[in-house]
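>> received
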Amino acid sequence: MKVALFIPCFVDQLFPDTAFNMVKVLEKAGCTVHYNTAQTCCGQPGYNAGYWQDAKEVGEKFIKDFEAEEYVVAPSGSCVGYVRNCYEKLFEDSAYFNAVKQLQQTVFEFSEFMVDVLQVEDVGASLPGKATYHDACGALRECRIKSAPRKLLQQVRDLELIEMKDVETCCGFGGTFSIKYEPISIGMADQKIENATATGADYLISTDPSCLMHLNGYIKHQTAPLKTMHIADVLASGWN
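>> returned
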């Protein structure tokens, strides 16, 4: 199966190893992976900040880059959710509308693609320890992704998955929300880390690098006994 990668800004600039690990897992699952080096942003930051025309221009490039692909996979439910749910409104009166409707069917978050499309849950990963999973808002609320990442994590050898209290509560990042409303954002991160720590987990895992960046910053500041990991990094762990 041929798969095109979309690597979001956060991953490209801050977590490139996550992108490489996603490629390793997809290739192990039998995919032929292609990366268009000309790709840029999906336009979500501009859209959320109210710069819709700028977001539309960025989105036009995204559409041109990926409209011919059978499958597009990204390590971010937030970006995937934006393309699926906001492009239709952004391009409702444009020549790109039909291409947008097609993209809604072909763009996938990494964990849902593994489970729902490839129907692969066990990739042979192993990671000793205990883990708890954070439902990122983009994945859960915009993409309706709940079971797929858990199915993958439950197959990781030597890893015990423990659900935290209020697991579906936002971590407080929300893009510019964390800057405009910093005290509220920090309070939400504090609640999330308190609930995660209470499980006794060694690892806090999620599908979205933006959430992990936010939570990892709080963890370092509070010296909490947790390590954040993207699910692609977990699934690439412990291979022989």
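>> The first helix runs from residue 9 to 14.
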